[in-house]
User: What shape does this take?
Amino acid sequence: MDNHPHPGPLPQEREKPSMLADVTGVSSNRLHSNSNSQAAATETTTDKPSNHAPSFPLSPGVRASVNSTCVAPLSKAESLPPHATRADTLLRRLDDGWHYLDRLIQNFIPPALNPFGQLGAIANTCLLIAVVTGIVLLYWYTPSVHHAYESLETIRRSSWLGQLTRSLHRYSSDGCLFFILLHALRITFQRRFTGPRWLAWTTGVLLLSLLWFIGWTGYWLVWDVRAQHAALGTARFIDRLPIFAEPLSRSFLTDQSVHSLLFFLIFFVHMLAPLAMGVGIWMHLMRVNRSRFLAGRTMTLWILGSLLLLSVLLPAFSASPAQMTVKAQKFTIDWWYLWPFALTDRLSGGALWAFFLFVGGTALTVPWWMAKQRRAPEWKAQVDLPRCMGCTLCAQDCPFNAITMVAREDGRKFGVQSYVNPALCVGCGICTGSCDSQAISQPVFNSRVIEKPLLAWIESRKARGEHPFIAFSCAESAGELLGADGEGNSVDLPGYRIQSVPCVGWVSAVMLERALQRGAAGVLVIGCGEGDTVCREGTKWFTQRMEGTHEPKFDPGKADPARVRFVQCDRTSRNELLRLAREFQLQPSHARAPRIRKKPMQVAAALALVFVLSTVTFVFSNLPYRPPHSPEPELIVSFNHHGAIVESRKLTNEELDKRLPHMRAQVNVTRERLPVRLRVQVDGRSLLDQSYQPKGLSHDGPCIAVVRLPVTPGSHLVRVELADTADSDKWTLQWSEVVNFAESRAWVVLFDTKAGFSLH
Assistant: This one.
């Protein structure tokens, strides 16, 4: 009994393909109505050997055709595969984890609603919600260091709408960073950062840094204990730069010393930085065609609903108010944005700079140091100009804006021609499937070179009375794990000839038609998973071409579309692929039944997913943190004071002889000042005796000091003395007082030239 039905009778005009179709790779009715003569003129160019013959394991069966045309094979460097990155095996295994997660979710939820397939769009949606709620929050918030905390507490006590807006602002900001991190991880595991994608990667790293900075400054504006530590950490970082006359950390010693202007500057930066985010996102997506900037309506409603529910059930509150002289021992922080506390509270300013410069430099240069070698030109799309008819389909379908239409160069009557920018081409091959005339292709995946042995193989198997099946396998699909040999045969999948392609978008409708017309019992097209695909739109265009909604579309009048089976099997679905392929062999004309997901199951799965993601967002936004400082009392002494000017003196004859005649003044006059000496005594015992040099290149600036001294709890007599003259035994400025020291409390003694000593 024949379980493999023969293909149905072909239309009369297709039983014997015309010479034009064989030569140009396009049926006459697909060409421009007045282009037949031009296409026929290209017959003489078809059999010319190309300059590079593909020598690659991903396209089995091509070597025979290549050898027949006597073309030299590519060198090892030229045949470098598209994803030649360091730690490629490890990254692929990590990427498999995403595939397992996608499959689990899509068993219950349609792929269009899988959040892990649209992480960037969800992050942008959360960012937009954060921006809108931040603007609305200004109705209640007072941007003043003296009133900021109280204005937020007033919202908590008296305005449910204001509190809801604040919580939405908080959690949408956390969610934005959360999904950006997931997006970055997925891009890394998919190895989508080398070659033309370097701009998207570097701008993405900068956007992530900018988003964190916006959140960091946002916590300043609350002016609670978290803001206190953020301010101190920032000061420790900035004080290493010689840009301020006075250390920034001196402004945060007491509540009274915090400058209102500095606080307003942070508020101004926090409000304007999202504008830079907009510019950065535009740069991030400028090389992507038809980018999905925001999530769809249904997904947006789920995002907004989950954030509203989280804001109502677990509203965001401030921590205890900032008190610069109080050493908080434990409080909760938002680890999404405040994780640097673990560094700023423990490392010096120099170590902080070294850490962030190293991490930032390493992240920004990933596209270069992670790439083993630059991709060879043979992996880029190239245009065979005599075949190009200027239809613009390749430029429309290219997902990465690598193809543009330019003025014709060869004088033919077509107005434009395709131009491929190799700096933007990622080698996805989607343009090949968009071109019926086979005018554009990659040398290592030349559609004309690949098609000839496929058609010859079909005819040879038909002559034996067999029912041949062709399988086009995406390089990121499970088909690449079937171990096909150089002829495309796999022990695991007998009866099939497997042809690897960079993306299913590479497969053109006319190639499928001709394979079926030559006698293929069926054509199996194996795509990658339904999540965040590597080549973005390949599966979309292929599906629409088969459905007849996108040009160049499959013509049912020339071949039976039921004998083309499209399956999506990621690299973790090898067994599923084998099952589907064997089912297709048994019933090649039987259409697959669409997967039916019951509505109650979809809703339940969506709620479970929302619960998990919301839980992660909340937990990391409210985890405990313990600063490294001890509860031991502390005495802080700081001064900003000028030492006396160095006295003038009469120059010696030897010093005068060394100067030019017009510079031989008898007296040396200088602006240099003397250092200021500080001595601190507690109960008559000296804890510190040190000199501080004046600032400035000419040593004519003030002497500045900030010292922290541990003190035992209890009442102590504190004495602070300053000497600003050349007489080391004379203490010109003195202060003493009995101070009661308590645990987790610091007492600050400040000296200013105008105000004198003060205790805080």
Q: What stands out?
A: The chain has three domains: 12-33+54-74+376-586, 88-369, 634-759. The longest strand covers residues 714-723.
